[in-house]
User: Which sequence fits this backbone?
């Protein structure tokens, strides 16, 4: 397909909206790969994360963004209808010639086995498709996407989305502790509490036991997620074995702002198992892409025709 418009990919969650902009030149360079090559979306020309419900920060960002090519296309994956409407009004006001395309599940080229597909979150399906695009069929994987809620979903070796689990993300977990207890403080930004640490610090997993209250909360929040991922990894591996398939290709695709620290703490978990059991346990290959949903939107937008505005 020839894609001749600059692209805004938008991932609207419950708390934040994440936006990536690709110029026509960046898209053209990305699409120059041979057909059939599994590719990762190119680095975007600019990006913005906006926690506001009325997109004040995005409006300011747009005013400072230099876009030579017009019109642009906005392709949106959203789990928040109110925020979607706010963004659409903003685009209509400041960029009336742009196309605004809210994705539906029909637009995401992945087979889904789900009791009520219409209730499947677009972010989950898009992240699964992005993981499939990266790994290709033949590699079963769990895709982990951490936001206000954390999701852990299974895509089998045939590339079929099989469902998964939803649990509170770091923010909800920390808020629940703060709201329902008398003395526990609220972490400043539990969803991204690891991001302020330097890369070399991240390679040193959180230590147990914690000796200070905020650190103890952070430790609990982080390892609630790590423990869930590990549990579902073993459950999925067992399922693959019971189906008579090779479980050793089972991989993890980690997404979200703290994906890198999640990887390091998972590696620490497996190291602890090896140490205690005195032999090496199977561990998955891990792929880290904090903006996985946005990459999925890029792949969808540059592969499928859209005639809606």
Assistant:
């Amino acid at each position: 397909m020839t894609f001749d418009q600059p692209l805004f990919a938008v991932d609207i969650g419950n708390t934040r909206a994440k936006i990536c902009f690709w110029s026509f030149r960046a898209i053209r360079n990305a699409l120059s790969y041979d057909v059939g090559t599994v590719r990762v979306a190119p680095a975007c020309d600019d990006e913005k994360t906006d926690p506001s419900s009325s997109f004040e920060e995005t409006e300011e960002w747009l005013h400072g963004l230099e876009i030579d090519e017009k019109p642009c296309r906005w392709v949106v994956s959203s789990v928040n209808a109110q925020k979607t409407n706010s963004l659409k009004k903003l685009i209509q006001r400041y960029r009336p010639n742009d196309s605004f395309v809210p994705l539906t599940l029909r637009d995401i080229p992945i087979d889904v086995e789900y009791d009520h597909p219409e209730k499947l979150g677009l972010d989950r399906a898009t992240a699964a498709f992005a993981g499939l695009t990266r790994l290709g069929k033949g590699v079963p994987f769990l895709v982990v996407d951490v936001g206000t809620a954390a999701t852990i979903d299974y895509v089998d070796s045939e590339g079929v989305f099989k469902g998964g689990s939803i649990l509170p993300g770091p923010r909800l977990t920390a808020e629940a502790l703060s709201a329902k207890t008398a003395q526990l403080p609220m972490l400043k930004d539990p969803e991204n509490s690891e991001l302020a640490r330097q890369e070399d610090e991240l390679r040193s997993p959180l230590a147990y036991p914690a000796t200070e209250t905020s650190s103890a909360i952070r430790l609990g929040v982080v390892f609630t997620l790590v423990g869930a991922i590990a549990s579902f990894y073993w459950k999925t591996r067992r399922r693959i074995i019971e189906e008579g398939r090779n479980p050793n290709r089972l991989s993890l695709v980690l997404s979200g702002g703290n994906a890198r620290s999640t990887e390091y703490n998972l590696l620490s978990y497996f190291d602890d198992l090896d140490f205690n059991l005195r032999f090496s346990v199977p561990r998955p290959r891990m792929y880290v892409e904090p903006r996985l949903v946005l990459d999925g939107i890029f792949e969808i937008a540059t592969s499928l025709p859209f005639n809606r505005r």
Observations:
- Confidence is low (pLDDT under 50) at residues 193-202.
- The chain has two domains: 7-107+294-301, 111-292.
